[in-house]
Specification:
Distance between the termini: 46 Å
CATH architecture of the largest domain: Alpha-Beta Barrel
Largest sheet: 9 strands, mixed
CATH superfamily of the largest domain: Enolase-like C-terminal domain
Keywords: Lyase, Magnesium, Metal-binding
CATH topology of the largest domain: TIM Barrel
Enzyme class: lyase
EC number: 4.2.1.68
Structural class: alpha/beta
Protein name: L-fuconate dehydratase
Radius of gyration: 21 Å
GO biological process, one term: amino acid catabolic process
């Protein structure tokens, strides 16, 4: 194909698939608010007529029922994408993202929150996957090789300027420019720190918890996480079991998945305090900024972490302004895609708060690792007190699954975002007619 023909290439289709995994059968992913989740993906494929065989793949993560609604939300964006120039999309990803977010009618369903915003994030992430594949780079490196000016152009600063301006962002990024190549080399050599939630699902027995915790420590993890919030006596027992199993030097984070009001959050965590919890994650509503601040003041030195259900950069901004969190937890599939997550990473850097992403779900480990690695190379230049969540479920369904060894994520080398699933997995787990589901529903 000639350069002229390639330049004229168009996006020809936005395919959306409803893909679900029956994880509820073994209580994988179970927590106090989601006792029987079926990890699911509203899965997106951007197709083009470029003739190079490249496609953009991404997903919005759900826990089963409602995945069809999420897929329908993504499909509403097709008219905004199909027919656009591939070069226009891939060469101006910031402009592309803003064109979706600012649709004057669809934005009414948010604005910038809920299923329509997650749909936007899935399509935007698929565009990043396509652009990075065309550049022959994994997304983390594709981002880390951009100039500060190019990175600032990705961010929508509307509603942020009281906390983060383009000038602030440029200063942060320019300050991190020296040493980029050395950090890339270090990342390729030794990877990025991880922690694991695999031992801690609420539906697991104490014996399974202890066995998996021992295995996690043997595998090199220095932090594990337990789900809490259903029953206080059970949580005290499980926390005691975990602490006795891993010893005093392994961090144990706990996650309530929004179960509590502010007062009960404080009381419950004081009961767990003798076992030295490192952080309490999602102690209350993700929208309750002042509630998180009150919990943080009451529980110091236990840290407060949140983010996986936060709808957009504005709520992250306010959490940071209110000194309500010690740990920012970005999610690759909750906000408006890579672009909005760049904004959140810059906000966290401005306020000096570490980012430890959420990755409990299908495909989330594969995607979010790119954002943390970019943050290390081009934004903060540090991995101190920073870890990416790792959950050992469903990676076999991905063309380029995460690689974790010695408690560290190894840097991806395959071009793209890592969200592309094997064709057989997409076929077998299609809901409700795929062979895995045909006998269940």
């Amino acid at each position: 194909m000639s350069r002229t023909e390639s330049a004229a290439a168009l996006v020809t289709a936005l395919d959306v698939l409803d893909v679900r995994f029956p994880t509820s059968e073994h209580l994988d992913g179970s927590d106090a608010m989601n006792p029987e989740p079926d990890y699911s993906a509203a899965y997106v494929v951007l197709r083009t007529d470029a003739g190079d065989g490249l496609e953009g793949h991404a997903l919005a993560f759900t826990t089963g029922r409602g995945n069809d609604a999420q897929a329908a939300a993504i499909a509403t964006l097709a008219p905004h994408v199909v027919g656009r120039s591939v070069a226009e999309v891939c060469d101006d990803l910031g402009g592309f993202a803003r064109s979706l977010v600012h649709d004057p009618q669809l934005r009414w369903l948010g604005p910038e929150k809920g299923a329509i915003h997650m749909a936007t994030g899935a399509v935007v992430n698929a565009a990043w996957d396509l652009a990075a594949k065309r550049a022959g780079r994994p997304v983390w490196r594709f981002l880390a090789e951009m100039t500060p000016e190019q990175l600032v152009a990705q961010v929508d600063f509307r509603w942020l300027s009281d906390a983060l301006t383009p000038e602030d962002a440029l200063e942060i990024l320019r300050r991190a420019e020296p040493g980029r190549e050395e950090r890339v080399a270090r990342l390729l050599e030794s990877g990025y720190p991880a922690y694991t939630t695999t031992p801690g699902w609420l539906g697991y027995s104490d014996e399974k918890l202890a066995r998996l915790a021992r295995e996690a420590v043997a595998d090199g993890f220095t932090q594990i996480k337990l789900k809490v919030g259903a029953d206080l006596a059970d949580d005290v027992r499980r926390m005691r079991t975990a602490r006795e199993t891993v010893g005093p030097d392994i961090r144990i984070a706990v996650d309530a998945n929004q179960r509590w009001d502010v007062g009960p959050a404080i009381e419950w965590m004081r009961a767990l305090a003798p076992y030295d919890p490192y952080w309490i994650e999602e102690p209350t509503s993700p929208d309750d900024i002042l509630g998180h601040a009150a919990v943080r003041r009451a529980l110091r030195p236990i840290k407060v972490a949140t983010g996986e259900h936060i709808a957009n950069r504005v709520v992250f901004k306010q959490l940071l302004q209110a000194e309500a969190v010690d740990i920012v937890q970005i999610d690759s599939a909750r906000v408006g895609g890579v672009n909005e997550n760049i904004a959140i990473l810059l906000l966290a850097a401005k306020f000096g708060v570490p980012v430890c992403p959420h990755a409990g779900g299908v495909g989330l480990c594969e995607m979010v690792q790119h954002l943390s690695m970019f943050d290390y190379v081009a934004v903060t230049g540090t991995v101190e007190d920073r870890v990416i969540e790792y959950v050992d479920h469903l990676h076999e369904h991905f063309v380029d699954p995460v690689r974790v060894t010695g408690g560290r994520y190894l840097a991806p080398s395959v071009p793209g975002l890592g969200a592309q699933m094997h064709p057989d997995s997409l076929k077998d787990y299609a809901f409700p007619d795929g062979p895995v589901w045909s006998g269940r529903v």
